[in-house]
């Protein structure tokens, strides 16, 4: 168990790990809150907003195989970049 200070940091980053947008909220705000999403995506454009929001995950054992867009497959390999943005220095 770690300490909980009551705040959440919501980030949108690009494939290089550069922060495009951020929002700081209190800890009891839902991650899918419409106001949070609106403030995060106000000036964002590209695949996220052109084709609606898409969740891309690896195929698990109990999932059916589906063809994946090449761009989505390449972005899936960028998971380490996403996880390293908030890594303590």
How would you describe this structure to a colleague?
The chain is built from four helices and two strands; from the N terminus they run ββαααα. It is α+β, with helices and mostly antiparallel strands and 89 residues long. A two-stranded antiparallel ribbon has the order 1-2. A hairpin with a 5-residue loop joins strand 1 and strand 2. The longest helix is centred in the middle third of the chain and has 7 residues. The protein is globular and about 40 Å long. The model has no long low-confidence stretch (mean pLDDT 76).
Gross geometry: globular
Mean pLDDT: 76
Number of strands: 2
**Rg result:** 15 Å
Total helical segments: 4
* Main sheet: strand order: 1-2
- Uncertain segments are none
Tell me the series of helices and strands, N- to C-terminal.
EEHHHH
Distance between the termini: 20 Å
Report the β-strand fraction as a percent range.
15-25%
SSE layout:
Elements: E1 7-13, E2 19-26, H1 34-40, H2 47-50, H3 70-76, H4 79-85
Label this structure with key terms.
2 strands, 89 residues, two-stranded antiparallel ribbon, globular, 28% helix, alpha+beta
Summarize the structure.
This protein is of the alpha+beta class.
């Amino acid at each position: 168990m770690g300490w909980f200070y009551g705040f959440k940091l919501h980030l949108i980053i690009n494939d290089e790990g550069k922060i495009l947008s951020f929002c700081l909220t209190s800890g009891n705000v839902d991650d899918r809150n419409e106001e949070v999403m609106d403030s995060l995506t106000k000036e964002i454009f590209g695949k996220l907003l052109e084709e609606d929001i898409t969740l891309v995950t690896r195929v698990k054992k109990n999932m059916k195989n589906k063809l994946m867009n090449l761009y989505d497959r390449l972005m899936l390999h960028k998971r380490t970049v996403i996880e390293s943005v908030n890594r303590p220095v």
